[in-house]
């Protein structure tokens, strides 16, 4: 009887080991994403605002594309490096009607976009393409492409649009929230921001639920970066000078209270992601700590071959006057022409708000391997629940 018990124990141990091995093999298999659908603001806009309003001009795009292609950088964005890493083409902006292909996904991100609706026009720094609108655009895109594939002659559609089954096998990426935090900073300052940030995150959660209803199953969610480290927020480029205030700036010259608001947003967002995992056990939700990845770069700029993180490659930002890259202005009777620096690859900040291609690539390399993710998965394994 003892021998039988011993044998049974061995069998159970072997079975358990094989089960663990099978699970590991399952989780180690790449997801083979067929498409990317991206939602966000100017940090991942690949041409929406440029197609909708005023087209981008050089020196935007000078480094990689050698022409302006609607990206708020000298070259590629993080979403471009994500696509490259997954072996997919760079994403076309959803509303860009010229020379576009949506075979492997679409980009709904738009500059100035927010999670929550703002009472601003485009000319006041607002956008009609809030996250809610972007998701409605996605739903329309999915519905209309589905109808194409019901037609007898499908050959012309298969070259340009994702197949209906590709939507389930896609990764849905998000990089939005920075403009919401900036709005809270402008309206509330240090105090009374908690309720507003909670409201923004709650609204974000509803949009995830909408996308799940529309069939999304793999979510890759960036939190918001250190907004207080954007050069335009720093006192040296701003009319407001609080350098003498104790605790106003951190060791890198970043504005502490602005970064604290971003951290509050990020903590609430992570809590939401945890809840969504429980609500939707058929989906995978990866939370990506972009704040930490970007802050690591800013903290080690010189060691990584970059100039001081407060320096701006393109634009004029002095004494509280802001003339953004590609624009000209007259300030105190002096004509200001904004040209770009000689070597953007040495800079973290492209225009005071957005990152250079070199910085975007550095950050992408850090997040794609799961080092800043919860759970800590390679992006190509993000579909595993």
Automatic annotation (TrEMBL):
Signal peptide range: 1-22
MF annotations from Gene Ontology: hydrolase activity, acting on ester bonds
InterPro entries recorded: GDSL (IPR001087), SGNH_hydro_sf (IPR036514), SGNH_plant_lipase-like (IPR035669)
Keyword Hydrolase annotated: yes
Keywords: Glycoprotein, Hydrolase, Signal
Pfam families: Lipase_GDSL
Family note: Belongs to the 'GDSL' lipolytic enzyme family.
Name the UniProt record assigns to this protein: GDSL esterase/lipase At5g14450-like
Designated gene of the protein: LOC101493484
């Amino acid at each position: 009887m003892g021998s039988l018990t011993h044998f049974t124990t061995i069998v159970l141990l072997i079975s358990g080991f094989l089960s663990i091995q099978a699970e590991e093999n399952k989780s180690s298999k790449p997801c083979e994403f067929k498409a990317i659908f991206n939602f966000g603001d100017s940090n991942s806009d690949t041409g929406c605002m440029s197609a909708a309003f005023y087209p981008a001009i050089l020196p935007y795009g000078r480094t990689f594309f050698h022409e302006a292609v609607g990206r708020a950088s000298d070259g590629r964005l993080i979403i471009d490096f994500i696509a490259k890493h997954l072996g997919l083409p760079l994403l076309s902006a959803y509303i860009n009607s010229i020379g576009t292909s949506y075979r492997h996904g679409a980009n709904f991100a738009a500059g100035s976009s927010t999670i929550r609706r703002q009472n601003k026009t485009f000319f006041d720094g607002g956008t009609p393409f809030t996250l809610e609108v972007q998701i409605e655009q996605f739903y329309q895109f999915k519905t209309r492409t589905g109808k194409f594939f019901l037609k007898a002659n499908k050959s012309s559609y298969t070259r340009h649009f994702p197949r209906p089954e590709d939507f389930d096998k896609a990764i849905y990426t998000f990089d939005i929230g920075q403009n919401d935090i900036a709005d809270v900073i402008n309206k509330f300052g240090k105090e009374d921001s908690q309720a507003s940030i909670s409201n923004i995150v709650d609204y974000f959660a509803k949009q995830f639920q909408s996308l799940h209803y529309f069939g999304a199953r793999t979510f890759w969610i960036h939190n918001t970066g250190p907004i207080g480290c954007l050069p335009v927020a720093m006192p040296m480029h701003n009319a407001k000078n609080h350098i003498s205030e104790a605790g106003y700036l951190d060791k890198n010259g970043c504005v502490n209270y602005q970064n604290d608001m971003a951290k509050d947003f990020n903590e609430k967002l992570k809590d939401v992601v945890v809840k969504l995992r429980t609500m939707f056990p058929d989906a995978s939700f990866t939370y990506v700590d972009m704040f930490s990845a970007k802050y690591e770069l800013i903290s080690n700029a010189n060691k990584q071959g970059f100039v001081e993180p407060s320096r701006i490659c393109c634009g004029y930002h002095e004494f509280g006057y802001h003339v953004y890259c590609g624009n000209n202005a007259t300030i105190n009777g002096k004509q200001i022409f904004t040209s770009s620096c000689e070597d953007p690859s040495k800079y973290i900040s492209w225009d005071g708000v957005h990152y250079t291609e070199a910085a975007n690539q550095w950050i992408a390399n850090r997040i794609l391997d799961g080092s800043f993710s919860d759970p800590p998965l390679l992006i190509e394994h993000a579909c595993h629940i």
